[in-house]
Design goal:
Blueprint lengths: L6 H13 L4 H13 L1 H20 L7 H12 L13 H24 L23 E8 L7 E8 L4 E6 L9 E8 L8 E5 L5 E5 L4 H4 L5 E8 L12 E10 L1
Antiparallel strand pairs: 1-2, 1-8, 2-3, 3-6, 4-5, 4-7, 7-8
Helix pairs in contact: 1-3, 2-3
């Protein structure tokens, strides 16, 4: 994949890396690129700073009891310390110290008799490349709609002046037979109906074409939601299905 001179692609990859959704070989390749590209490192740092507030919105969860039981089993299975023997003998260590001292003196003498050698040490220089300023953007992280289910189901991201909404399914299951998932903007004003942003593609990662730039299409929606609708989307632009995921839509600029 060629990422250089493609700021929008770099921005997306940095976002995926910071979210933890870039996995396997793709994550290893991206980490290799970061070691060579200061601009990518700064992009990732910027995304990590952007996403930090999201962690505060996620409720704390205690690890299941089985995790602690597994830890206790592993600790209990550790081999016991061996009984003291010659390894703990003072005489053994005194004699070993005398032998080691003699070997060291012999090595120093041998090195002193050798002709001096010139060793070339490679000099590694890190070149800092000026980073393109991160684009002002909208980002939404949607969690499962169930009260006791806080799984991250879906992520959406769009640069402020772009009409493309980048979407990625996290743990969103496959659509029910003959149904589609539809993404909705939830207005801040109570009583106003949700507005459809489009039917979700079946791909794990894809884009939705917005009606206008994100600054117009998303600015009035502090939250987004996903519903199950008839195949092809809700009829007449009115949602009739159950909500499967919802979450805040935040601005970063």
């Amino acid at each position: 994949m060629q990422y250089r001179n493609k700021p929008e692609l770099q921005d997306r990859l940095a976002a995926e890396y910071a979210l933890g959704t870039l996995r396997g070989g793709a994550r290893l390749r991206f980490e290799a690129w970061m070691r060579e590209d200061a601009a990518l490192r700064r992009a990732v740092e910027a995304w990590q700073a952007r996403l930090a507030p999201l962690a505060e919105a996620v409720p704390e969860r205690a690890p299941p009891r089985r995790v602690w039981q597994a830890v206790e089993r592993r600790i209990g299975a550790a081999p016991a310390a061996a009984e003291a023997g010659w390894w703990d003998s003072l005489a053994f260590w005194r004699n070993w110290g005398l032998i080691a001292t003699g070997c060291t003196a012999a090595l120093v003498g041998a090195l002193a008799l050798r002709a001096p050698q010139v060793v070339e040490v490679p000099v590694i220089r890190q070149v800092e490349v000026e980073s393109r300023r991160m684009q002002p953007s909208y980002i939404a992280v949607l969690q499962a709609a169930g009260e006791k289910d806080d799984r991250m189901m879906f992520v959406a991201y769009a640069p402020r002046h772009s009409d493309e909404l980048w979407v990625k399914r996290m743990e969103l299951p496959e659509e029910p037979h003959n149904h589609s998932y539809e993404l909705w903007g939830l207005p801040a004003k109570e009583g106003e109906p949700p507005v459809s942003l489009g039917v979700l593609p079946s791909n794990e990662k894809s884009t939705i074409k917005l009606a206008a730039a994100a600054d117009q299409s998303l600015r009035d929606f502090p939250a987004l939601a996903i519903t199950v609708e008839p195949l092809g989307g809700a009829k007449g632009g009115k949602s009739s299905g159950i909500v499967v995921a919802k979450g805040h839509c935040m601005r970063f600029w």
